[in-house]
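Hi V.,

You were right to ask for the full record rather than a summary. Here it is.
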Amino acid sequence: MPFAAAATRLLPGMAHRVMLQRMLYRIEHPELRERVYGELRGHEPATVLQAADAVARFSSHDWIGDVDVPTAVIVTTRDDLVPPARQYKLAASIPSARIFEVEGDHNACVSSPDFAATLVRACRAVATPEGKLAADRA
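Predicted structure:
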């Protein structure tokens, strides 16, 4: 990726168009494609490539099983960016993690009417033993 980032600095206009085309053609959902386009079109291609490289290299596999605090994982069940199967796999890797589902895509935190209530339940579930009981009843 460092080579690609350097190349985008030499030919920014062309690199920007090519990068957007390659990234967007894989996104089937029209609204998600438009949102990604809106997010990326105003940024320097080299910076976007460096950020994408960092995200692609990140892995919690080595340490996620060592999490030893109460944990809640909110799974967005219609997520096109991070498939629900990956979200459930993450949750299963954390001992005693509680799973809370939200019907929505990757943007659910701002588009799903149920997200805020689910987030509150998830927070209560890990905050105190009383909260855990209240969340179980909700």
